[in-house]
Amino acid sequence: MRKFLVTDDSKLARRTLIKSLKEYILEERIFEASNGFEALKLTLKEKPDVVFLDLTMPVMDGYEAIPKIKNINPDIKIVVVSADIQEKAKEKVYALGATLHVQKPIKSDKMKAILEVI
Ligand SMILES: [Mg+2]
């Protein structure tokens, strides 16, 4: 069974995403981080298979975290969850190694579609 790490500095954003995720994934397989640095530490400790990653966060943002997370585990799937859906932002996260770029918020239907492709 795959493990999931949900990273966002907004607790509400994490809650919304986790609520959708829990419709499909057992709760004990879901970990939470509030910035990129915490995500790195949890990637080392819990070895998640999939990381949901916000871009704008304090301490370490998503852009900085992507290559560092991939460096720990090149096979990890990174789903960038952002309000910024400009092509430039998308191109940048894909170039850094993200698997998917999806727009906030992630409700049930969108989560189902994500889980089908990652
Ligand atoms: Mg944020």
Describe the fold and architecture.
With 118 residues, the chain is of the alpha/beta class. Helix content is 45%, strand content 19%. The protein has five helices and five strands; from the N terminus they run βαβαβαβαβα. The chain has helices at residues 11-21, 36-46, 62-72, 87-96, 108-117; strands at 4-7, 30-33, 50-53, 77-82, 100-103. Strands 2-1-3-4-5 form a five-stranded parallel beta sheet, sandwiched between helices. Helix 4 (87-96) links the parallel strand 4 and strand 5 (100-103). Residues 8-10, 54, 56-57 line the site of magnesium ion.
Descriptive key words:
5-stranded parallel beta sheet; 118 residues; 5 strands; alpha/beta; Rossmann fold; binds magnesium ion
Secondary-structure map with pairings?
Layout: E1 4-7, H1 11-21, E2 30-33, H2 36-46, E3 50-53, H3 62-72, E4 77-82, H4 87-96, E5 100-103, H5 108-117
Parallel strand pairs: 1-2, 1-3, 3-4, 4-5
Helix pairs in contact: 1-5, 2-3
Bound molecules: magnesium ion.
Counting H and I runs of at least 4 residues, what is the number of helices? 5
Q: What structural category do the secondary elements indicate? A: alpha/beta
Which percent range describes the beta-strand content?
15-25%
> Percent range for helical residues?
40-55%
Global morphology: globular
Q: Specify the oligomeric state.
A: single chain
CATH superfamily: Response regulator
Could you say what the CATH architecture is? 3-Layer(aba) Sandwich
Spatial sequence of strands, sheet with the most strands: 2-1-3-4-5
Q: H/E series, N to C? A: EHEHEHEHEH
Bound ligand species:
magnesium ion
Which value, in Å, is the CA radius of gyration?
Answer: 13 Å
Largest sheet: 5 strands, parallel
| Name of the level-1 CATH class | Alpha Beta
Instruction: Give the count of structural domains.
Output: 1
Mean pLDDT, all residues: 96
Low-pLDDT residue intervals, each spanning 5 or more residues: none
How many individual β-strands?
Answer: 5
Query: Between the first and last Cα atoms, what is the distance in angstroms?
Result: 14 Å
Q: Examine the coordinates and then state which fold CATH places here, giving the name of the CATH topology.
A: Rossmann fold
